[in-house]
UniProtKB/TrEMBL annotation:
<comment type="similarity">
    <text>Belongs to the LysR transcriptional regulatory family.</text>
</comment>
<dbReference type="InterPro" id="IPR036390">
    <property type="entry name" value="WH_DNA-bd_sf"/>
</dbReference>
<protein>
    <submittedName>
        <fullName>LysR family transcriptional regulator</fullName>
    </submittedName>
</protein>
<dbReference type="InterPro" id="IPR036388">
    <property type="entry name" value="WH-like_DNA-bd_sf"/>
</dbReference>
<keyword id="KW-0804">Transcription</keyword>
<dbReference type="InterPro" id="IPR058163">
    <property type="entry name" value="LysR-type_TF_proteobact-type"/>
</dbReference>
<dbReference type="Pfam" id="PF03466">
    <property type="entry name" value="LysR_substrate"/>
</dbReference>
<feature type="domain" description="HTH lysR-type">
    <location>
        <begin position="2"/>
        <end position="59"/>
    </location>
</feature>
<dbReference type="InterPro" id="IPR005119">
    <property type="entry name" value="LysR_subst-bd"/>
</dbReference>
<dbReference type="Pfam" id="PF00126">
    <property type="entry name" value="HTH_1"/>
</dbReference>
<dbReference type="InterPro" id="IPR000847">
    <property type="entry name" value="LysR_HTH_N"/>
</dbReference>
<keyword id="KW-0238">DNA-binding</keyword>
<keyword id="KW-0805">Transcription regulation</keyword>
């Protein structure tokens, strides 16, 4: 008889495609993942994955096991959510996912207020462009730029975030461009191709034509620091750029806005610790609303 927890290992490998990535997801070492998979395969008497150069690929036996493993996972998570919902005090771990710039430069300096209110909370802030799955408890709360599209989530709009084009005074000269299009020819900084789908990336490509950026990055923080150093113009969140010494390019209304949404699994939204963090975020964003939206966005 196999250990039911080995199914978590099986699903992690299937979702990530490798032992090392599964180990990072499960927060264990790669040796443990390999051992647990071997034990599961021995217990079932079947090889579940083919180890190919491109990664771990399900065998026929693995394909047959997959829907059953997903069903067990969903039932286990439902039990976990039901038990969590009985919490009465805002204490324990809450995992929040958001984009890197929001987490490091906006939220982190303000989390002391949350800790003062609820010292029993332990917050984990996970940043990056990868969207974590709330239904599988990869995260408890998600602060996203754009309305969540996954089915079955409870979400609410918290506010707006404005983006505009910024550069140093030295780069823009004594007479800064009146309109964004007038800045064509000035060195440009932009997101890399992996983030070309973002509204701010599409807007920049539209207004700057065929300009080739001198720097591309998947990090807002990298673009911000490069813009501060005078390397080029960058589309940045207004709350990040204003007051930094950078000058805004273009007139009021020349920029782009994105909606800020908070998402949670509906079974967890009444859990005290999660509700406490959600209420804090909603209040913080409402209070900082004009700054986040950009006074001239």
């Amino acid at each position: 008889m196999f250990d039911w927890s080995d199914l978590r290992v099986f699903l992690a490998i299937q979702r990530t495609g490798s032992l090392s990535a599964a180990a990072r997801t499960l927060r264990v070492n790669q040796t443990t993942v390999g051992r647990r998979l071997a034990e599961l395969e021995q217990a079932l008497g079947a090889r579940l994955f083919d180890r190919l150069p491109a990664g771990m690929v399900l065998t026929g036996a693995g394909e047959e096991l997959l829907p059953h493993a997903l069903g067990v996972e969903e039932r286990a998570l439902a039990v976990e959510r039901a038990v969590s919902a009985r919490d009465s005090a805002p204490s324990g771990v809450v995992r929040l996912t958001c984009v890197e710039s929001l987490g490091s430069r906006f939220l982190a300096p303000r989390l002391g207020e949350l800790h003062s209110r609820h010292p029993g909370l332990r917050l984990e802030v996970l940043t990056g462009s990868h969207v974590l799955d709330l239904t599988r408890r990869e995260s408890d709360l998600a602060l996203r730029l754009g309305k969540p599209v996954e089915p079955g989530l409870a979400s609410r709009k918290l506010g707006r975030m404005g983006f505009a084009l910024y550069g140093t005074r030295a780069l823009l000269g004594a007479r800064p461009p009146v309109h964004v299009e007038d800045a064509r020819g000035i060195p440009l900084l932009a997101f890399d191709e992996s983030l070309a789908h973002l509204p701010e990336s599409r807007w920049l490509a539209k207004v700057m034509g065929e300009a080739v950026p001198v720097l591309r990055s998947n990090s807002t923080s990298v673009l911000f620091e490069a813009a501060l150093a005078g390397l080029g113009l960058a589309v940045l969140p207004c709350w990040l750029a204003e007051g930094s010494g950078l000058m805004r390019v273009g007139a009021a209304g020349e920029g782009v806005e994105r909606e800020m949404w908070l998402a949670v699994h509906p079974d967890l939204r009444r859990v005290a610790r999660i509700r406490a963090v959600a209420d804090f975020l909603a209040g913080l964003i409402a209070r900082e609303g004009p700054r986040l939206a950009g006074a001239s966005a």
